[in-house]
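$ ./design --mode recover --in tokens.txt
reading tokens...
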């Protein structure tokens, strides 16, 4: 069916959900209509994500029901035991998240599949936790994470509590694609589901169980006791889900000297004043910085709307706040975890940490210093969860920490996705650790730079929206592959890794295998150790460039980063 035909079938539906009907009637721009109807939403790095509105390439009740119907039909083939184990569901503060979550519950109910759903919004990591806690077969999280307010999304989890890896999500997609009439998906009555016990509401019971597990994050209880009250934080959950669990976790860990940014402490799907409610961006700290200066806070901490990402700004000697990168936050935390365990004599001999291939080598160097193995995986926290699963089955490593440059970290594996709630308490402990040494987090970072080298990284994400977007991104990837650069800013490319065909090509032409699942990623290693990676985002219409470099001085490293960025842009635009 052409996009025009699909559009017509939507126009013809008399019973279309009223708000979608109004929006459809108001759509006049042909490009916009084509974009909404040209093809179905795909499953990317973190499930399905897109603009809300009418159309098959949009998040709305019909596409949510369709995705859930695919999951339900797949679970039908697995038998009653799996269906009784059921599916856990959570949702964030976005518009329609609650509605989509309950619609998903009703679709599952129509297939006689058990549902566990939260009584109110809850963070993504608590959904991952619920899958494991309730032993469900799958999980659904309704969120578009840190995307602008017009977006929503659908993350799907497997029974280990990790987001579904591509093999399973491709299988799911094949079931979803087989559904021809998205307007004819059966919905059960939720009251009847509740009465019969097919649906269970989760709330304080699961929160309490999560918080009990969260106690394991603390390594040195003395630090919070001695220094917890001396340090001042500002915490902003950016109008999302992070506040309730975040505050409880912080308090139980002994950190009570904090303020919650009052406006952003309230869940609000409009995210007023936050075009991107993303702790990666300075705009996320505008309100908390103001409050921070008033109350003289040492640290500002922001969690994204589904509370899986965390960003932080630290007070510098001049009184201004410095926004740390995800790579820096991760490196500081990894160093603390390893150092604290070493001091306590509890660092396991088979300790391992996991990071994505586009994350900093600063952490690799720190891990090596403690004799800890660093394992690299593809982008997507599901790959970190997959490693943890492997360690458990093979008993070969003890998981110490996992992270991605995109502000995602996991400390204890009772959750199998990035977890900003755990991170909140650990970061507070790290700050207390430096306080115990009469230092700030800022001083701590400088100390690590001096010891391991001045590492600097940058992620550049260029947007290619609309119908032509995917082709533009594809052409740029093709250009890098076909006109393979030999140098960037005067440095020779000594290794070219193409993850799409599992090859690692050395300067002398020797080809080796990468041994990582295939993915559309290119990565270059230069003669001076700098690395550059390029990949299309799986969550937004963007092409992402990542650069990581290091030098003996901060100024030197920043200069190198700027030179490589310029060379990369010049090559892409030539
Ligand atoms: O958006 P979130 O916080 O759910 O995070 C999601 O997207 C990030 C960026 O992915 P991409 O570069 O493909 O856009 C991934 O690193 C992360 O694993 C995934 O859960
Ligand atoms: Mg998020």
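writing sequence...
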């Amino acid at each position: 069916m052409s996009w025009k035909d699909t559009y017509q079938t939507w126009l013809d539906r008399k019973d279309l959900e009223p708000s979608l009907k109004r929006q459809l009637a108001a759509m006049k721009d042909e490009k916009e209509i084509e974009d909404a109807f040209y093809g179905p939403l795909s499953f990317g790095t973190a499930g399905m994500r897109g603009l809300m509105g009418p159309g098959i390439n949009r998040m709305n009740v019909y596409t949510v029901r369709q995705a859930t119907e695919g999951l339900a039909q797949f679970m039908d083939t697995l038998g009653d035991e799996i269906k009784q184990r059921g599916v856990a569901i959570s949702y964030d503060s976005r518009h329609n998240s609650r509605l989509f979550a309950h619609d998903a519950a009703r679709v599952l109910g129509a297939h006689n599949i058990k549902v566990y759903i939260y009584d109110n919004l809850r963070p993504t990591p608590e959904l991952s936790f619920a899958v494991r806690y309730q032993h469900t077969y799958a999980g659904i999280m309704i969120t578009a994470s840190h995307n602008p307010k017009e977006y929503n999304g659908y993350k799907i989890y497997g029974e280990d509590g990790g987001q579904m890896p591509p093999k399973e999500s491709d299988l799911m997609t094949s079931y979803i694609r087989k559904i021809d009439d998205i307007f004819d998906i059966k919905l059960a009555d939720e009251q009847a589901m509740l009465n019969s016990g097919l649906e269970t509401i989760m709330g304080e019971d699961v929160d309490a169980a999560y918080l009990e597990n969260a106690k394991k994050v603390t390594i040195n209880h003395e630090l919070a006791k001695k220094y917890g009250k001396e340090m001042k934080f500002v915490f902003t959950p950016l109008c999302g889900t992070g506040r309730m669990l975040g505050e409880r976790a912080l308090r139980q860990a002994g950190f009570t000297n904090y303020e919650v940014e009052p406006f952003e402490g309230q869940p609000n799907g409009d995210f007023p004043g936050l075009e991107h409610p993303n702790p990666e961006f300075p705009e996320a700290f505008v309100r908390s910085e103001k409050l921070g200066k008033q109350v003289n806070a040492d640290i500002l901490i922001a969690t994204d709307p589904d509370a899986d990402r965390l960003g932080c700004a630290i007070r510098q000697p001049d009184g201004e706040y410095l926004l740390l990168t995800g790579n820096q936050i991760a490196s500081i935390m990894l160093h603390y975890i390893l150092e604290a365990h070493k001091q306590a004599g509890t660092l396991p001999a088979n300790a391992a940490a996991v990071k994505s291939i586009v994350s900093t080598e600063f952490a690799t160097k720190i891990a090596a210093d403690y004799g800890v193995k660093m394992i690299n995986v593809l982008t997507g926290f599901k790959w970190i969860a997959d490693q943890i699963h492997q360690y458990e089955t093979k008993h070969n490593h003890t998981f110490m920490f996992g992270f991605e440059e995109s502000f995602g970290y996991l400390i204890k594996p009772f959750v199998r996705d990035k977890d900003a709630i755990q991170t909140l308490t650990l970061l507070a402990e790290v700050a207390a650790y430096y306080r115990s040494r009469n230092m700030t987090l800022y001083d701590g970072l400088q100390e690590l730079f001096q010891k391991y080298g001045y590492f600097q990284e940058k992620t550049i994400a260029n947007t290619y929206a609309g119908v032509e977007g995917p082709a533009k991104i594809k052409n740029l990837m093709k250009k890098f592959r076909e006109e393979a650069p030999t140098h960037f800013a005067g440095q020779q490319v000594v290794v070219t890794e193409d993850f799409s065909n599992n090859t690692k090509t050395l300067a002398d032409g020797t080809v080796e295998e990468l041994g990582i699942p295939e993915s559309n990623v290119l990565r270059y290693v230069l003669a001076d150790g700098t690395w550059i990676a390029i990949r299309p985002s799986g969550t937004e219409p963007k092409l992402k460039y990542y650069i990581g470099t290091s030098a003996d001085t901060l100024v030197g490293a920043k200069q190198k980063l700027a030179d490589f960025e310029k060379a990369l842009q010049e090559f892409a635009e030539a």
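exit 0
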